[in-house]
Design goal:
The protein has 283 residues and is mainly β. Helices cover 8% and strands 35% of the residues. Residues 234-261 are annotated as: Disordered.
Amino acid sequence: MIRGLLLAAPLALAAALAQPAMADERLVQHPYAPNEVVRIDGRPGVQATITFGEGEAIENVAVGDSASWQITPNKRADVLFVKPLEAAARTNMTVVTDRHTYFFDLVASPKAKPVYLLRFTYKDAPKKAEPMVAALTPAEQSVLGGTVETPVDPAALNFAFRTKGDARILPARMYDDGNATYLLWGEKAEVPAILIQNAKGEVGPVNYSVRGRTIVVEDVPHVILLRSGKSQATIENQRPAAPAAGTPSSAPNAGAATPPASLAPASAVVAAATPAASPIREN
């Protein structure tokens, strides 16, 4: 449905089409520019999908001729579906999100070549942090009960710890499997005294075992204290809390049936998907 993106010059349009989102040329990526009108060439019976930044929510959609175009957001209000209802129609559309404002020129033509996806990209988009998961050594696999045939997947372990204090007495590696905490010091490092702190702030000893060079602390304490002479350090477990079993959904009308988008006018769908936003209106 989308043929291309009309920029300030035909050369710029060609450059946008030369960089598809995937190997299929019908999937197009386009860098966001705040002062740009993006042209979408549509064809009746073919739908275009517009996606925005990760976590970006649509707040308002306005179209000049809502009778000739069907504009429908998804339930999460982060994707917009655009489809012409007439063979030849032209109008404009403005999309306001919680981050940006987008301007579109919608042009329907029976000869348009459909492009199925228009995905906006952003120069200032934050990069996803890589998970702090490293491969386990054979010794660590042995401590965890893994074997060469059935190794323990490091992705199943928690490596999220926050440390503070004297780095000289901190372990070189720490992780937990949900049942025990594993602390590994270097070969020549002296292992400090290991204590735990409960929710009341009370400090006491902890039961642990030694497997090779790995200290296996029973259970998964939230705070572990290390002491060696005048040196002190703290290890705080940052494992995400698991949701309580049987907790009901806090969303109102959870499980209520939603009528298919094809059975409701575009304005009604927009209003349902974005309660705080104004419905599609005819300018």
